[in-house]
Amino acid sequence: MIYITRKEHFNAAHKLFREEWSNDKNAEMFGKCSNPNWHGHNYDLFVTVKGEVNPETGFVIDLKDLKQIINSRVIDKLDHKNINLDVDFMKGKMASTEMLAMEIFNQLKGEIESKGAALHSIKLFETENNFVEYFG
Question: pLDDT value at position 39?
């Protein structure tokens, strides 16, 4: 078993809030992350796949294929978008980094598997100091 990781980057805005809560309760729970006018992050995404090396190609997965999958299923939908309003796979979900990482995993899993590899993990950096890692 071998692991390979691809790094991508996107910029996106979001806010953390619950519609059923008052603005004061949202501010108490989420602080400035509940800013009514949104806020943004420069996200770094690490996608790690695993599998056996194909003896003919020497690859677990062709990195051109992995790049295309990540870009079409995730980056194109998130980059310079509002996660709460614009991203189909985040509709109706809290736009936390934890939820975003889980949904990115779900977006990628099937197509990566169709290429003969397994999705091992998603590591999503929201800031230089804060990141989430999800293993499905």
Answer: 95
Contact assessment for residue 50 and residue 61, using Cβ atoms and an 8 Å cutoff: no
Active-site residue, selected from the candidate residues 14, 103, 120, 126: 126
Is 126 assigned a catalytic role?
A: yes
**pLDDT, mean of residues 94-113:** 98
What does DSSP say about strands 81-82 and 2-14: parallel, antiparallel, or unpaired?
parallel
pLDDT at 2: 97
Instruction: Give the Å distances, CA to CA, from 50 to 23, 28, 66, 78.
Output: 44, 41, 12, 25
Residue of 52, 80, 113, 133 marked catalytic: 80
The CA-CA-CA angle for residues 100, 28, 43, to 5°, reads 25
Please provide the distance, in angstroms rounded to a whole number, between the alpha carbons at the two ends of the chain.
18
Cα–Cα distance, 59 to 2 (Å, whole number): 10
